[in-house]
Design brief:
The model has no long low-confidence stretch (mean pLDDT 96). A hairpin with a 7-residue loop joins strand 1 and strand 2. The protein has helices at 11-19, 31-41, 108-124, 147-157, 209-222, 270-288, 309-322, 337-340, 365-385; strands at 45-48, 56-61, 67-73, 94-95, 98-100, 130-136, 163-166, 178-180, 182-183, 185-194, 198-199, 236-243, 251-252, 255-264, 291-300, 303-304, 327-329, 346-348, 362-364. Strands 1-2-6-3-7-18 form a six-stranded mixed β-sheet, with helices on one face. It has a four-stranded antiparallel β-sheet with strand order 12-14-10-15, with helices on one face. Strands 4-5-19 form a three-stranded antiparallel β-sheet. It is elongated and about 85 Å long. It is 31% helix and 24% strand. The two termini are 24 Å apart. The protein is of the alpha+beta class.
């Protein structure tokens, strides 16, 4: 495709097209089709990589190194009460310069801004390398058959990505005030204590699982995991639910369940934390004589992209585009960067995230357009310094 024939993409129009696809995880509803059509029109070779019921897309333009990748997700969280929205959550209405809709911030606006940036760069000339997109439909869900599987497949094929920008809404209060260069790991665990049901007046004929669970989770919650790690906040264990499901007042229940999540820094790995939890459950089981089941879902270890040419280049580009130098942070939840870091240096840069996952999720039109210019500068800076 010649430079003269390269279409220049409107980031706001593309954001609206993507929002109008109600792609609540794991549904796609045509969001990947919208993106594939636009990228094909920009000269990208697009591969749909479906694992289980999850749609994924890897698109690349060029064969030379270096390969700069953009990663993102087209899936969104549920809308909550649609009646509570100022306009329909998938109508993508613009009012007073503000675009409303589920995914406007997290992160269809980011995807559209990078596509627009790529189109502007290509309209100016070819890049000395390759550009690629890694887009999933499984970031907001279990994240088992999305980016994780795509990365595994690409690595097995020998595909090389030299650096990656993830379009998560990393900005805190103003566009470009923060990038994320690392994230803590995450571990979910489910605890089930099996007792023996019986009448509360005859406890000798029953085995109550509730106090066993209560003592166990209290011990876990009181344990200090660490005091922090360089560039990271301390690890924390949070109890997220305790359930018995007992509606009777005179019944000792047969089971009691609890769930917890641990967000952890590089002092730990998922394996080390699971070993600790298993040991604590073993102690509780020995003390109580009751059977205790423990299940884990480890969604990724902590990672940190060290400050170097890639991080510094992105910071320089953002500062040149918006006049502020972004803080390099590791705060917040998890993202698909935890999988991509196996292939290359990765960081997150995107819109202001104040309304993500909320009723009336929204982004100023001017901010989406400004992000496209930030991304254009990032791309240009990357290849100039490669």
């Amino acid at each position: 495709m010649s430079v003269a024939s390269t279409p220049v993409i409107d980031p706001v129009a593309l954001t609206r097209d993507l929002i109008r696809r109600p792609s609540v995880t794991p549904a796609d509803e045509g969001a990947m089709d919208v993106l594939e059509r636009v990228l094909t029109g920009l000269g990208f070779h697009c591969r749909r990589m479906k694992f289980e019921d999850i749609e994924n897309l890897y698109a690349r333009r060029g064969t030379d190194s270096p390969n700069l990748c953009f990663a993102g997700h087209t899936d969104v969280v549920p809308t909550g009460s649609a009646e509570a929205w100022s306009s329909g959550p998938f109508e993508a209405e613009v009012k007073d310069g503000i675009l409303y809709g589920r995914g406007a911030v997290d992160m269809k606006g980011g995807i559209a801004a990078w596509v627009a940036a790529v189109s502007r760069v290509l309209a100016e000339g070819e890049v000395p390398g390759s550009l690629s997109f890694l887009i999933t439909g499984d970031e907001e869900g279990p994240a088992l058959h999305g980016t994780k599987r795509v990365v595994e497949a690409l690595m097995a094929e020998g595909e090389v990505i030299d650096a990656c920008v993830v379009g998560e809404p990393s900005s805190q209060h103003a566009l470009g005030d923060m990038i994320k260069i690392g994230r803590r790991g995450s571990l979910n665990s489910w605890i089930t204590v099996h007792g023996k049901q019986g009448h509360v007046a005859y406890p000798d004929r029953a085995a109550n699982p509730v106090p066993v669970l209560a003592r166990l989770v209290a011990r876990l919650a009181d344990h200090r995991l660490d005091g922090g790690y360089e560039a990271f906040q301390p690890s924390n264990l949070e109890l997220t639910t305790l359930d018995v499901g007992n509606t009777a007042t005179n019944l000792i229940p047969a089971e009691a369940r609890g769930r917890l999540n641990i967000r952890f820094n590089p002092n730990h790995t998922g394996e080390s934390l699971m070993a600790w939890l298993n040991a604590e459950v073993g102690k509780a089981q020995a003390e109580s004589g009751l059977r205790i089941e423990l299940e884990h879902l480890h969604s990724g270890d902590a990672f940190l992209t060290q400050t170097g040419p890639f991080v510094t280049g992105v910071q320089d580009a953002v500062e040149a585009a918006v006049g502020r130098r972004p803080e390099a942070s590791t705060t917040g939840g998890t993202s698909d960067a935890r999988f991509i870091r196996a292939m290359c240096p990765v960081l997150e840069l995107g819109l202001v995230g104040q309304t993500m996952h909320q009723i009336d999720e929204r982004a100023p039109v001017a901010e989406i357009e400004a992000l496209a210019e930030v991304y254009r500068t990032v791309i240009r800076t990357f290849f100039e310094r490669a």
